[in-house]
Amino acid sequence: MRQDSIATSRGRAQDPGSGDDFRPCSPLWPFFVVLISTICPRMITLGFFPYMDEGFYAYWSQFMQHSLAQGQGVPDAGGFCLYSLLLSPVCALPGNVLIWLRLSDMLIAVWAGWLLCRLLERESRSAVGGMLLGLAFLCAMNAPPVIQAGYKNSIFAAYVPLFLALDLGWKNGRVTTCWYVAGGLTALAVLLREPFVVFAVVGTVAVWLGHGPRAVWRYVAGGLLTGLFILALFVLLRGGIATLLQSYLNAEAVYGPEVARTWNKFVSNGIMSVRAFWPLLLLTTAAFWLLFRPHGKHGNDFRGQVWFWLALILAPLLEPLLKIGFVYHFAVSLPGCAGLCALAWKREIRRFPGFRKGGIILTCLACLVLITGMPGPAAARMTLETLRAFPAPGWPARFMVQSNTLLAGAVIQKIMPSGGMLSVSGFMHFLYPVTGFLPPDPALSDLSRSLIMVGYDQARLAALLRENPPDVVVVGMTHEEHSAIFTDALIKVIELSGRYTRQSVIPVDKDKNYGWIGCIIYRKIVPAVENSY
Question: Tag placement on the chain: N or C end, fewer CB within 10 Å?
C-alpha cells in the first residue's frame, strides 16, 4: 500500500513507494506553463464572435442574474445549472457580458491548469517532465476546437475540485478526514458537470482497491453528504424539485430524435479528435509501451496506477458514445493521458539517460506542434478592437457585417421596444447575451424545443405565443444538424398566432461567421386597443 508523502528535512517530497525524493520546482514554473497554454490563447480570442454552445450557458447566467436582481430568487426553471448560477453575478457588470464570462472562465481554467501541472510534477517525480507534459496537454485542452473562445461549458470548473481530490488522496491517503473531503470534492465536480459521475465511479473503485473498505465508505459518505446538501439547498432556493426533474425528462425528449446519429457522430468527431490531439496520442502510446515493454526491469507494484490512469482515459468516452459527441467531449480523456505519461516518466524515462533525452525531445516537439495551432493575429486584433469599445455592450460595427449572429442582434435591438422580450429557435441562445434581452418564459427560450415539448402540435404552440407573446421572435433557417426540419413548422406557428409581422430576413451566407444560420425576424403587432392609452 502506498505510504504517506512526507517532507524531508531538506524540504523535499518523498515519492510514495519509490524510496527516492525530488525537489518540486518553484510555483512560478506552473504559472509560466499556464500563461503560455491557457492565458495567451484565451486572451487572444476573448473578443471573438459569439459561439452557440457558450450562448446556452450565458443565457442561463443572464436569466439567473435577472431573477436574483428582481428579488425573485433562483428561478424555478431549467436543470441544475450550477456553473451558470455561480457566474451569474458578472452579468450585472457593464460592457460585453460574454467577455466577462470568458474572463471568469479563464481564471478558473488557470487554477485548473496550475493544479494539473502540480499533479503531473508529483506523478512524474520530475519538475522538467511535469512542466513539459503540463504545457503539451494544457495547450490541447485550451485549443479552439475544445473551448472555442472560452465559456463553452463547465468542464474546467469541474476539473478544479476533481484535481484537488486527486491531490488530496495522493498526499494524505492514510488520514481519515482526507477521504471525506476527497469524496465531497468529487461530488462537487459531478454537480458542476454531471457526466463527471464516471470519475466518481472510478474514484470509488480506486479507493477501495488501494486503501480498503473503510476509506471507500468515508469517500462515498463525503460525496453523498456534500452532494445531497448542495442539491437540497438548490432545491430549497428554487422552491421545489418537481420542475428540476421535469427539465431532465424534457431534455431526454429534446435530444431523443438525435439518437440515430449517435454512432456516426462518435466516429466522425472521434476522427477529428485524433487529428487535433495526435501528438498527445503518440506520447500516450509511447508511455503505455514503456510501462509494459517486455524487457522492463521494474516489478508489478505500479500496475494499479496504470489501470487507474487508463480508467480516467476510457471512462469519459462513455459520454460521446451515449449522445452526440463533439471534440470537447473526447478532450476530457486528456488528463488521464497526461497522468499515464507522467507515470511512464517516473518509472522509465527519468531512470535512463537515453529515454530521458528522447522523452524531452518528443514532448517538446508535441508542445511546438500544439502551440502552432493557437489562435492567430486576426483574432487578437478583433479582441483589441472589442476591448477598446468598452463599456459598449457589443462588438464594433465593422464586425457586424462579418457575422450573421451580430447582424441578427443589430436588427433585434433596432426593432425591440424598451424592456421587450425575445424568443429564438434552433439553439440560437447566443442571441440573448448579444442583445441583452430575455424570453418572457424559459419555456419559450428556444421555440424548436418548445415545439417538441408540445408534441409538434403547431396550434398549441401558437396558443402559447398568444398567451405570453415575446416582442420579437427569431426563427432560424439552419442546416440539418441544428433542426432545420423545424423552420417550416415554426413559420406556420407564427402565422397561426396572428400576432407577428415579418421584419427582416438574414440569408444563409457561408462566408460569414455562423453564416450557415439564416434568420427570419418577426415583431409583435401592437393592437389598436393598446395604442389608445
Answer: C
> Sign of the CA dihedral 116, 321, 208, 16?
negative
Phi, psi for residue 524 in degrees, rounded to 5 = -65, 135
pLDDT at 276: 93
Q: Please give the model's pTM, rounded to 2 decimal places.
A: 0.90
β-bridge mates for residue 474, sequence order: 521
Give per-residue pLDDT as tens, 403-414: 999 999 999 999
d(CA 253, CA 455): 10
* pLDDT (0 to 100) of residue 21: 59
> What DSSP string runs through 25-91?
PPTHHHHHHHIIIIIHHHHHTTTSPP-HHHHHHHHHHHHHHHHHHTT--S-S-SS--HHHHHHGGGG
Can you tell me the distance from the alpha carbon of 408 to that of 404, in angstroms, rounded to the nearest whole number?
Answer: 6
pLDDT below 50 — which residues of the chain? 1-19, 530-533
Distance separating alpha carbons of residues 205 and 203, to the nearest angstrom: 5
**pLDDT of 397:** 87
Which residues are bridge partners to 477 per DSSP? 518
Q: What residue type is 433 in one-letter code?
A: P
244 grid coordinates: 428540476
Residue 428 Cα distances to 183, 240, 249, 355, 378, angstroms: 37, 28, 21, 51, 25
Dist. CA 303–CA 360, nearest whole Å: 24
Question: Cα 125–129–134 angle (5° rounding)?
Answer: 110
Element (H, E) at 390: none
